[in-house]
Every structure is written in structure tokens, then in C-alpha cells.
Design goal:
Blueprint (H helix, E strand, L loop, with lengths): L8 E5 L22 E6 L12 E3 L3 E7 L10 E4 L2 E7 L2 E2 L2 E2 L3 E4 L7 E7 L2 E3 L1 E2 L9 E5 L4 E5 L2 E3 L18 E5 L8 E5 L2 E3 L4 E4 L4 E4 L2 E3 L3 E5 L12 E4 L2 E3 L12 E5 L2 E7 L2 E5 L6 E7 L1 E2 L2 E2 L2 E7 L2 E5 L8 E7 L14 H4 E7 L2 E3 L6 E5 L5 E5 L2 E3 L8 E3 L2 E3 L1 H7 L6 E2 L10 H7 L6 H9 L12 H11 L30
Parallel strand pairs: 1-2, 2-4, 3-5, 4-6, 5-9, 6-10, 7-11, 8-12, 9-13, 10-14, 11-15, 13-16, 14-17, 15-18, 17-20, 18-21, 19-22, 20-23, 21-24, 22-25, 23-26, 24-27, 25-28, 26-31, 27-32, 28-33, 31-34, 32-35, 33-36, 34-37, 35-38, 36-39, 38-41
Antiparallel strand pairs: 29-30, 39-40
């Protein structure tokens, strides 16, 4: 038996199957560097050991669960309560009904600290036909220091046939991280692949560092931070070096194709991302910034820098008036609570647009939509190109403008209107062809689902694909800082240091 308070180890043989669950787990290791371990042994050529669900009502700390295949029914992991210094690494959450992982401390504002998900494969979590519940690959709430690194999230939130399953599908995601509900949240997302989500690929409700992640065929690539009434201050985010490819819709009636969504945010930076090659979605926005009213409370976006990004042929199959970049907000309402100013000029303010490339060949798409011109405090050195009728390319305050008149309106004297041509094609099938593999999406999804210890193929991880896309546009490669040593201590969760804008 494992002893509570000791760094005991339980190893299960790879290739074997257990029908038992790990129910109501309450045993802890000794400390953050002497953790209890539940893992695997045996030949690395064999599959992970299979067992049932891993559940707990909290009350444990200092635990590692590694290289396990968890339940394919109900919730593979269901931790509800307070715990600290827990790592789940290298595990498979296979296709099955309901959520893949629930990590929360119900009714509390904090309680989960130093929690890490690394190199897990979480795929195909579905909602059974006839069910109206929400389904997520992972759902996390009340976490303070949180690390989500180099995981695979694929095709979560749909029905068991991988299709649309009713009006609630817009609330089903690959990942869903709530707003932490405490002070000083430090959430880190990096090196993950998220693909074919029902709705959101990366739902970073508490903002944080969102760096070098790959989004493929998601209706919404990255969303930060989540809109909620109890925190209309929002959270800062640094969204950088991500690649978002091949947008999609939630369903025929819920059209999307949004690359990066920013709402309920302050002092955030969107920098050096590439959003491109979208041919399928029906409501394409490369970057969407919105300040909406939620349950009678006005949300805000303040102090936002959008710098050095590329939006390239995020064209979609346009059936609604999409834009490469757009800023929208709800109208003033006398019945609404306004915490940061009650005039529309306060809802979205102090936005900087510098050194971006915005290029689309869809003749139905506008390049930019601003609800008003004075929300942009600085615009310079951007490159625009579009094929819509020239006097309709830009829209400000409900009126259309051509390029020169738009620049005059926002006091920009340095931006230009030119085409942008990458050095080569940069989609997922182009990458596969370049590494000599079958160049189909089905092949890509099959390979990323097979990732595991002993069978880890670096070609099917986020960073090489991101660098393939960056190279096509002449961008420097992303540095890959995968440091396993730091997971034993708090130093692994270093703050991401949002820069203060000038």
C-alpha cells in the first residue's frame, strides 16, 4: 500500500489492463521534490497500462501521475477540491463520453496551486446523442499557478460521430480554463497542439503566457481572457509566437473561423503570431477584439498592443461580412453596470497597431473594422493588402474608407499597401509533404494521437510545425525550452512578465 506523506511509487506494467478506478484519492507525497508517483514500467514499445478513472475530492499534495491510459468512460480525471504540486504527464485520455479532465475546487476562489499538464494526449471526448451537457477535453477552475505544456488536444466536444450535436456546441471546447478567481494568476500555455475542437482550441480564461502553440482547424483558435461578471477588470495576456491555421465553423448555423479573440482584458500584448490559410470557415476574423455586456455588466478591453503579427489569407468561405481584424462592442445601455467609464469610448481604448501584415485575397473581406477611430492611439509600419472594392476595405464607425483616408483618420503616416508573398506554401499538408510523410489531414491527426513515451515523434509536435510556417514568412525560429528539471519546484512557474506599454 502507498503510504500517505511518503515518496512512495506504484508502477503498472505497460501493456496490461486494470478495470479498477483510483477513487477518492487522498494520499500525498512528502514534498514538492519527493512526490508520490503512479506510473508505468516495462518495454517502451508497449502501450501505456490501462486503468479506470482517477478521482479525488481533494486533500492531497505532491503527486505525479505518469504514462497511464485512463478511463474511456465518464471522466478520465475528476479532481474536485484543493491540492498542490500535482503533475499529470504523458497520459492518454482516450475517446469517451463527457469531459476528459475536470480540475476544480467548487465554490472556492482558489485552492489549486502548482498544477501541471505535460505531454498528455486528450482526444475524442464527446457528448452522447440526446445529451445537452457541455463537454470539454479539459476543464480547469480555481487554479493559481498552472502549466499546460506540449499536450495534444484533438476533436473534443462534438458527438460520438465527431459532428455537430445541438445548440450547446458553442460551449464545448478542447480546453476550457476559467478565470482562476484569485489574485495573481500565473497561467502558462506553451508548445501545445489543439485541433478540430467543437468550438475553442485554447480557451485561456485567465489570460497568461500563451506562447508557441499550434491551432489547426478550430472554430476559435485562441481566446483570452474569458468574459465574466464577477471580474470585469479582466486579465493580462501575452499571446506570442503562436501559429493558427485552417479555420472552421462550429456548425452550419454557428459560423466561426476566428484566429485570436480578445475580450475582458487589460495590458495585453498580441505579438509575433501567424494566422493563415483559412478556406473553410463562414465568419472569418483573423483577430477579433470585443467588449460585450454580460449579465448586465459591461466588459472592457484596455491597453492592448497588437504588434508584428501576420494575418495571411485568413479568407474563409465567406457568407457573413468577416474582417481580417475587427473591434466591436455593445452599445451603451442605461440598465448596465459600468465599472471603467460609461461612454462607448471607454469600452475599448488605448490600442496600438504596429508592424503587422494584414493580407487577404477574398474579395468579400474587409481588412479592418473599428467601432471608432480614437480607440487606436498608435498605428505605424503596418502592411495591408486586400481585393475588396478599394473604398470598402476599411470600416470605421459604420462608414467605409479607402486606404489613404483610413490612415488619415487614425493619424498613420508610415503604413503601406502591398502584397505579402510567403517563400513557400505553409499549411499542414505542405509540412507533411516536406518531411516525406503522407500529406493528408487524417494522417496528421493519426500521428499526433499516437504520441507517447517511447514513441514520441518530434516531427508531430508544435514547435517544428510552427517553425516551418515561420520560415515561410522569413521569421526567426521559436526556441524550444523544454526543461523537465524545473517541475519539482516553484521556479518552473516563473511569471510571464507582461511588459508595460509606453
Amino acid at each position: 500500500n502507498l503510504r500517505d506523506g511518503y515518496p512512495d511509487i506504484m508502477l503498472l506494467k505497460r501493456g496490461d489492463t486494470w478495470t479498477e478506478n483510483l477513487p477518492d484519492w487522498r494520499k500525498s507525497g512528502r514534498s514538492q521534490i519527493e512526490r508520490m508517483i503512479i506510473g508505468a514500467y516495462g518495454s517502451l514499445s508497449d502501450e501505456r497500462p490501462k486503468l479506470g478513472a482517477f478521482t479525488s475530492n481533494g486533500g492531497f499534495d505532491f503527486l505525479i501521475a505518469s504514462d497511464l491510459e485512463l478511463s474511456d468512460s465518464w471522466r478520465s480525471v475528476n479532481f474536485e477540491g484543493a491540492f498542490n504540486h500535482v503533475l499529470i504527464e504523458g497520459c492518454l485520455v482516450p475517446p469517451g463520453p463527457a469531459h476528459g479532465m475536470i480540475i476544480q475546487n467548487p465554490g472556492e476562489v482558489t485552492g489549486i496551486d502548482f498544477f501541471a499538464l505535460r505531454r498528455n494526449v486528450i482526444v475524442g471526448r464527446y457528448r452522447p446523442s440526446g445529451s445537452t451537457g457541455f463537454v470539454q477535453g479539459i476543464y480547469i477552475d480555481a487554479a493559481i499557478n498552472l502549466l499546460i505544456e506540449e499536450n495534444i488536444f484533438d476533436n473534443n466536444g462534438k458527438d460520438e460521430f465527431g459532428a455537430y450535436n445541438g445548440a450547446q456546441d458553442l460551449r464545448c471546447h478542447n480546453t476550457y480554463v476559467m478565470l482562476g478567481r484569485g489574485n495573481g494568476e500565473n497561467h502558462i500555455w506553451r508548445y501545445n497542439i489543439s485541433s478540430r475542437a467543437c468550438s475553442h482550441g485554447f480557451q485561456a480564461g485567465s489570460g497568461g503566457l500563451i506562447e508557441a502553440n499550434l491551432s489547426v482547424e478550430n472554430p476559435i483558435g485562441i481566446a483570452a481572457s474569458r468574459t465574466d461578471t464577477w471580474n470585469d477588470d479582466g486579465f493580462p495576456a501575452l499571446i506570442t509566437k503562436n501559429v493558427i491555421l485552417h479555420g472552421n465553423d462550429i456548425s452550419p448555423s454557428d459560423l466561426r473561423g476566428w484566429g485570436i479573440l480578445i475580450e475582458n482584458s487589460y495590458n495585453s500584448i498580441v505579438e509575433d503570431n501567424i494566422i493563415g490559410d483559412n478556406v473553410d470557415s463562414g465568419y472569418p476574423f483573423g483577430i477579433l477584439v470585443q467588449a460585450n455586456i454580460r449579465s448586465g455588466v459591461q466588459m472592457y478591453v484596455r491597453d492592448l498592443a497588437i504588434n508584428n503579427n501576420i494575418i495571411h489569407n485568413w479568407n474563409g468561405n465567406n457568407t457573413i461580412d468577416g474582417k481580417a481584424m475587427t473591434f466591436v462592442q455593445d452599445a451603451y445601455s442605461s440598465g448596465t453596470v459600468y465599472s471603467h467609464g460609461s461612454t462607448p469610448d471607454d469600452f475599448i481604448r488605448d490600442v496600438e497597431l504596429t508592424n503587422n501584415i494584414v493580407h487577404t485575397t477574398n474579395s468579400e473581406l474587409r481588412l479592418m473594422n473599428l467601432n471608432r477611430s480614437n480607440l487606436v492611439t498608435l498605428s505605424e509600419n503596418n502592411t495591408f493588402y486586400g481585393t475588396r472594392t478599394s473604398d470598402q476595405l476599411f470600416r470605421v464607425g459604420g462608414a467605409n474608407y479607402n486606404f489613404n483616408n483610413f490612415l488619415n483618420l487614425i493619424s498613420d503616416t508610415t503604413s503601406n499597401f502591398n502584397t505579402t508573398s510567403p517563400n513557400n506554401s505553409y499549411g499542414i499538408t505542405d509540412y507533411l509533404s516536406g518531411i516525406g510523410e503522407e500529406s493528408t489531414f487524417s494522417s496528421f491527426y493519426s500521428h499526433i494521437r499516437q504520441q507517447r513515451k517511447g514513441f514520441w515523434d518530434g516531427r508531430y509536435t508544435a514547435v517544428p510545425i510552427i517553425n516551418f510556417v515561420r520560415n515561410a514568412f522569413g521569421r526567426n525560429p521559436v526556441e524550444y525550452n523544454y526543461d523537465i528539471s524545473g517541475i519539482s519546484g516553484t521556479q518552473y512557474y516563473k511569471p510571464f512578465n507582461i511588459r508595460v506599454k509606453n
